[in-house]
Structures are given as structure tokens and as C-alpha cells.
Design a protein that fits this description.
It is a single chain. The protein is an all-beta fold and 74 residues long. It is 0% helix and 20% strand. A two-stranded antiparallel sheet has the order 1-2. The N and C termini lie far apart (41 Å). The mean pLDDT is 87.
């Protein structure tokens, strides 16, 4: 990893989300690679982080059940 390099603007402003200080050679890095960031920013709790560059995120939301006429937490 070198310390100089160009950082791409990924188009998302979020408090605490900053580009890395050093340049990386990872192709899946949104600032230095070729991955585009689209869609929503999801908030949740990281449950597993066992594989390389992969995490399992658990988020809670409510789903309406028309049969029972109430919401269930998922």
C-alpha cells in the first residue's frame, strides 16, 4: 500500500464515513477500485465476520401480517 493516490468521490455523505488514509490495490474498494455504491445505507449490528471482506448484518424491522392484523418483528 502506498500513501499517495487519487481518491474517488463515491457520492455518499455520512458522518464517520471517510476514505482510507492510504491507497489500496483492492478491486472491490469503493474509493480506489471499480465498485459503484448505489441504493440505501442500512444500519444494523454485525453478527458474523468470519470470511474475508464479508459480514453478516442483522437489522430489525416490522412486517405487517394481514392474517393476524398486527406487525411482527423480524
Amino acid at each position: 500500500m502506498s500513501t499517495t493516490g487519487k481518491v474517488r468521490n463515491i457520492g455518499i455523505t455520512y458522518p464517520g464515513l471517510e476514505p482510507p488514509k492510504s491507497t489500496c490495490t483492492d478491486d472491490k474498494c469503493p474509493w480506489h477500485g471499480s465498485v459503484s455504491v448505489r441504493g440505501l445505507i442500512l444500519e444494523g449490528v454485525v453478527v458474523k465476520a468470519r470470511m474475508t471482506r464479508t459480514v453478516t448484518v442483522e437489522r430489525e424491522y416490522l412486517k405487517y401480517s394481514s392474517k393476524f392484523k398486527r406487525y411482527e418483528r423480524r
